Amino acid sequence: MAMVQDTHGGHGHGHGDEPLHHQFEDIHQQNETYVIGMWTFLVTEVMFFGALFLAYSLYRWKYQPDFYIAHKELSVFFGGLNTVVLLISSFFMAKAVYHAQRKEKRKQLNMLWLVQACAVAFLFIKVVFEWMPKWQHHLTPLNFIWDKPEGNAEHAQLFFSLYFGMTGLHGIHILAGIIVIGALQYLVWKDAPSVKGDYIPTEMIGLYWHFVDIVWIFLFPLYYLLPR
Amino acid sequence: MAAHTEDHGHHITPMSVYVKTLFALAFLMALTIAASYVDFGKIIGNSALGSVINNVIAMTIACLKAVLVIQFFMGVKYSSKLTKMWAWAGFVWFLLMGMTFGDYFTRHWEPAPGWYAEDTELPPRESEIRLRPTPKVHSEEGGH
Description:
The complex is a heterodimer.
Chain A: H1 27-62, H2 64-71, H3 76-101, H4 105-136, H5 153-189, H6 200-224
Chain B: H1 15-36, H2 40-44, H3 47-73, H4 81-89, H5 93-106, H6 126-130
């Protein structure tokens, strides 16, 4: 990714083992093109999530006292635990890219397995300890009943609709990550030509995974740590 | 940017950078949870301003964490100028969000269900019918 000066001064000399495609001048240009393409996708994701963050901010501004009361139904412990799980998974993903760059296939695959384990753990915690109890307590948008003595029922329902919409969309991104990382693992394992000797596919999936982590970094304080 | 390079021309971030980033992120997470339990409203005796302080602290820490992830885990710090510009441009959206806020708070809005729920006489919404009847409750602050 780092586009350093080509010390060889030529067009791709000395990069014989890098999978350079004919439309690119050299491997730097090719890698930069891939990375910028991935960032373009991530920019659309920022806008996609951004609209939801905007909706959240407006209603939070409007109904802060009710949102505060509703947010007490969420578990800071499991939210925090999931934050730790995702941070660690991001670290493993960075390590996977590191080993891909050094062409250490075995270690790269091991790191990707650890990322997978974290992703599954995240979804497990999310579904079993957070979403399912919310269903039992009638707090999902589908079966919402607010029988607490305080707080406005409609505003509380709005809070939980936003909560399920945003954490649900984030969960779908985790699920997509599991599938994409699985596909990458298969290709790396099989020494497929599209990934052999090229760290960029791992790098791009890593960028996606870190982005999903960033979304959670914002979701966590916005839903679990509301001030009065 | 040319500090760590190999013959293949791509930057390999040293493992120590990733480890330090992970610890910084974990520390910031602990800090944001701890800060959320501090009621600044009580400390300074102004609950509205205290709430603002709590929010500013939480969002500042979240932004710091995001910057750490972008710079080191995603390696934007070590990437080309074009990549840097393109990556950060995505977050310009948040500036646009501020402009949207300006619009929302300066414009006179037509009453719509859910926005001015209390001061308009609209027919009951489906969701109101579905809700279990509860005593008409408002927050202690006395509503809106």
